[in-house]
Structure formats: structure tokens, C-alpha cells
Amino acid sequence: MFNEKSGVSRRTFLTTSTSASAAVASGSLATNADLEQISGNVNTRSGPSALRITDMRIAHSDRSMLMRLDTNQGISGYGEIRYDCSKAHGLMLKSRIIGMNPCNVAEIFRKIKKHGGVGCDGGGVSGIEVACWDLAGKAWGVPVWQMLGGKMRDRVRLYCDTTSRPTGETMGNHLKERIAAGWTFCKMDLRPGGEDEITHTHGSTAGMFTGPAPDPTANRPVWGGFADGAGAPPPNRKIPMGAYNPYGEHLFTSTFFTDKALDWLADYCETVRGIVGYEIPIATDHLGHLPIEAFIKYARRLDKYNLAWYEDVVPWFYPDQLRRLKDACTTPLCTGEDVYLADGFKDLFEEQAISVVHPDLANVGGILETKKTIDLATQHGMASCIHNNNGPITLLASVHAAAGDQFLACEYHTADVPHFLDRIRRTDRPNDPIIDRGYVTVPDGPGLGIEINMDVLKANLHEGGLFEPTTQWDNESSFDGHM
User: Which residues have C-beta within 8 Å of that of residue 474, sequence separation ≥ 6?
Assistant: First the structure.
């Protein structure tokens, strides 16, 4: 069953509008008095000024730590804690927002943003911010994009992520299937050896890297949590994507590509482009981290394949190194998925260190911080995409953030996961697919413009129940001035 039935359609809103609602519909600024007037002319199910948050609950499913904020007027708003976070990132903030009006998104955000940070630490703050926008839109009877000043497009382009394949031929054929399905922008992993679910043995990347041997007495996990003194998985063990990092642990390992590795990469790209052609943009997924000199060699060797960007080749907090690589190659550089707040991009913008900014809405602080980041990127002459390997709520929130600005594409990470989007449905077009040939039509329904399929969500829970009580977090406190 679906819940959260829409209280008002966009047509109802526009045909019953007063001068105040017309101002909002056109993207103009409106006062609180104007907004109160609107509530008397549309079929809202709440009194926005009296709306209060009463509870926070969590449902954990595939790539989605779904957060629900309940209110004293029977409407709920949804957000997502970044999928690889702990639910505690959100629940620790519950006591700080109970009793507040979710329509005052800026006030709530100002109160909790100090509890966010880079990477997963931004997950709880971002999820709450999204849920508050969803509630505010439902209370006022307008879509989130309208409250942000209107939209510049009716559809938002997605780019389709495609995880590792062992050969250029298998990758090229899979991308060809993507193109046939209507996708107009793709991304692929591009790493020597093709790590994704391939059986690796010691020496599978022999001769591809020059670097010091790992300390055999050390028992430190490499990227993905693999603990092995030799820096490689045990023989004949099948492992998931990202669990094995043949590059070493970080850019300080003095590990470099050899010509054998570069030959392998060039042959891989040549094969992919031979199958899909050069017309469609193909970006590369997370590559780093190696010394900047290693990536200069990498970039110069692969530039001729017209890739859309090299992603995360150097940590985002080294803008000087990114600028050095940018000046040495002709392929755009892209980064930003772990940055918190639009202000966190300041050095990247001011030093012109990248060509494509790539915030993750579930980490950067939510919808408004994503929009601010896109605005700033435009001012600095940079293209904007949105990173997203989260669930359906974050996908639709990203669409709202991207609807009103110069924008390239938003990531969709789960094209190979059947029925991934079945847990939501649009309120304005309930029978339409969420994604149509690589695009999402910007919703016109109130809030995020979606409702939750509780049956599908329940069938895909990873741990715990469906929005179980979280009373143990009701009185969580600290000396942060929240009381």
C-alpha cells in the first residue's frame, strides 16, 4: 500500500492562486504573511505555522537508510541518511529538533549543521534537511523546487554508473545496452585488473605497479576493509567491488603505474570506444589515490579517448595537486562527493582546481547546500553534476536541487538492481516510471512529490523493523546549546 496521499495538485494550486501564491509560483520572494494567505486558498492538510516535529524513525533497506520525520498534524517527511552511515548519525540529532517547525528549514539546519562533517559525518544533517523540505512542501502544498525559486527545466538528465567489468569488451557491450535503453551519459570503473567480483590471486596485477612491498607483519585493512599483510586478497577468493585496492592504501605509498598498466588501460578504453563509439560521454569512477606524478602519466595516456572526466584522482582537500594535474592533461577533473557544505568547496573553486563539481546531496548538507554548490560552481565557470549512490529519496531530492540551475547530470548507481525504484511512486504521475530513458521528470506534487510503497520497503529491509520506535534517543543531550 502507498501512504502520504497528495493533498493538492499543481493545477489546483495554480487555478486557486491569489497574488501571494502567484508570486510563489513564479519563483518570486514571498513573505510569511503571503504564505499564510496561500494556505487558505489551497487544500492543505495542515496549518503550517503550527506544524511541529514529534518523532524520527528509521528503515534500513538496500542502499537506503530511510529517515521519517513525523508531525503533530499527521503528515510525515522523508529523507535518507547516507547509505554507508550508521543510523546514529541521524538519531543523535532527534532530541535537538523535536518540537521545532519543519517549515523553518533554515532555523533547523543552523541548529544541527555543527554536528555534520565530511564523508559519512554529513549524513544525518543532510537527511533531516531533506525531510524538512519534504514536510514544508506538503504543508504549503507546493513542490520543493518551487520553494527554491522555480525551475529551469522539466527533466533532469541522469548519468548511469556501470561498475567494473574484467575486459573492455564486456564493459563496452554493457554500455552499449545502456545506450540502447536510452541513457545518454555513462560512467565506468577504469582500473587495471578489473576488481569487481573477479577472482584475484597474488600477482594478478604483477608488473603493473612499481612500489615498495607492504610490511608483511602489518595487519592493516586496505580500502574496503580487507586485512592482509600482502595488500591483496587470499588466493581464489571472490570479493565485492572496492574490497581490494591494488594501488596501495593512499597517495603516500610511492606506487606508480608501469607501461604495462598503461597499455592495459589504453587497450581497455580503445575497446570500449570501438564498441560504443565516441558520441556518448563516458566518465570514470573513483580512481585514487596515487601520487600526482602517477596520474599525470595516466591522464596523458588516456586523454585521447575523450572521457567525460577523471573522478577523485586526488583527495579533494589537495586543490593545489588537482590544479597541477588539471594543467597537465586535457580531460576534465571531477571531485566533491565527500565535501560538507557549499563552503567546503571554496578552495577548489578559488584555485580553479577542477572542471566538474560533484557534491553528494546526502552528505553535503541536503538540498539547499547542493543548490548553493551548483550556484557557486556556475559563478566560477565549472560544470555541475550530483554524486548519488544512495536510495530513491536522495535521487528525487537531487532532482529538485538540480531543477533550477545550470546542470549537467545526476548519478544513478543502481541500474542493475531490479525493482530498486519500486519502493516509491510519484504523486503527480503515479503510473509513470521514475526514470524514463535516462531522465527524471521534475515532480509537481507537494514536497518531494513521492510517496512510499511500504510493502516493497518492508520486503527489502536489511536490519530492524519498519520504522520502529526510537524513544531511546528522545533525551539524548550534549553541551551544545540545543536545549
Answer: 94, 95, 98
Confidence of residue 206 (pLDDT cuts 50, 70, 90): confident
| Interatomic CA distance for residues 265 and 259, integer angstroms | 10
CATH 3.30.390.10 segments of the chain: 10-150+463-473
CATH topology of domain 155-461: TIM Barrel (3.20.20)
From CA 396, how far away is CA 370, in angstroms rounded? 13
71 beta partners = 53
Query: What is the three-class DSSP state of 211?
Result: coil
- What's the pTM? 0.85
For residue 223, give every residue at least 6 positions away whose Cβ sits within 8 Å of its Cβ, in sequence order, or none.
Answer: 242, 245, 249
The three grid cell numbers given for residue 329, joined into one nine-digit string: 592533461
Round the average pLDDT of the chain to a whole number and report it. 84
C-alpha atoms less than 13 angstroms from C-alpha of 408 in its C-beta half-sphere:
24
Cell of 405: 540551475
* Cβ-based neighbours of 288, under 8 Å, separated by 6 or more: 247, 251, 295, 312, 313, 314, 315
Please state, as a whole number, how many other Cβ atoms lie within 10 Å of the Cβ of residue 115.
Answer: 18
Residues 84, 483 contacting (CB under 8 angstroms) = no
Cα–Cα distance between 375 and 368 in angstroms, integer?
10
CA separation for the pair 140, 13 (Å, rounded) = 10
pLDDT score of 106 more than 60: yes
Question: What was the pLDDT predicted at 246?
Answer: 45
Listing DSSP states for 398-448 in one string gives HHHHHTTS---EEEE--TTSTTGGGGEEESSSTTS-S-BTTEEEPP-SSBT
* Coil, strand or helix at 386: strand
Boundaries of CATH 3.20.20.120 in the chain?
155-461
Residues 6+ apart with CB under 8 A from 372: 342
What's the rounded Cα separation, in Å, for the pair 382 and 175? 27
Angle at the Cα of 163 (from 160 to 164), degrees rounded to 5?
Answer: 145
- CATH superfamily, with its number, for domain 10-150+463-473: Enolase-like, N-terminal domain (3.30.390.10)
Per-residue pLDDT at 36 exceeds 70: no
Burial (CB < 10 A; 0-12, 13-18, 19+), residue 211, is middle
pLDDT at position 130: 98
